[in-house]
Backbone:
């Protein structure tokens, strides 16, 4: 159990928070190439089933990072399967929907859009690279992408100098 220290004293991280933190460490160690990435990945993967059974931003983010790690390390089938879990969690959270009328702050709306955009891009990437159909169907989504993300997904829709 990982503990944090705050003004209120030591507090234990939830298993979801631990798994997310471990996946961040795993990807960082993978980039650094110091040989510890697999240890962090395995520790996070041990909590993965418990974490992805929750429908939270944490679980979607953790599953996304698990899938990214799997893809980067050549675990193609696992990455494809994990991406399916990521999409289902994100859709359960409504990330694929326009939430402008939900009363969320503009920060939270943009946060949701950016998470969805990353999931969308990864799904499209895996579809092209693996030769499999995309999981996300555009007809099911009405989220409005931010301008910067629109440029990446759709192409240059704005004159840029």
Residues:
């Amino acid at each position: 159990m990982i503990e944090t220290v705050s003004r209120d004293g030591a507090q234990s991280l939830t298993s979801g928070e631990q798994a997310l933190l471990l996946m961040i460490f795993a990807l960082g160690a993978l980039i650094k190439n110091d040989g510890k990435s697999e240890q962090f990945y395995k520790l996070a993967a041990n909590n993965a089933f418990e974490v992805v059974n929750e429908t939270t931003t944490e679980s979607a983010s953790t599953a996304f990072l698990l899938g990214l790690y799997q893809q980067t390390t050549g675990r193609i089938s696992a990455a494809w399967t994990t991406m399916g879990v990521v999409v289902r969690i994100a859709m359960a959270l409504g990330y694929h929907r326009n939430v402008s009328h939900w009363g969320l702050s503009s920060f939270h709306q943009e946060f949701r859009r950016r998470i969805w955009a990353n999931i969308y891009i990864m799904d499209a990437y895996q579809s092209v690279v693996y030769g499999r159909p995309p999981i996300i169907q555009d007809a099911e989504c009405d989220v409005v992408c931010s301008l910067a993300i629109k440029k990446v997904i759709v192409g240059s829709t704005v004159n840029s100098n």
Notes: The first strand starts at residue 3 and ends at 6. The mean pLDDT is 84.
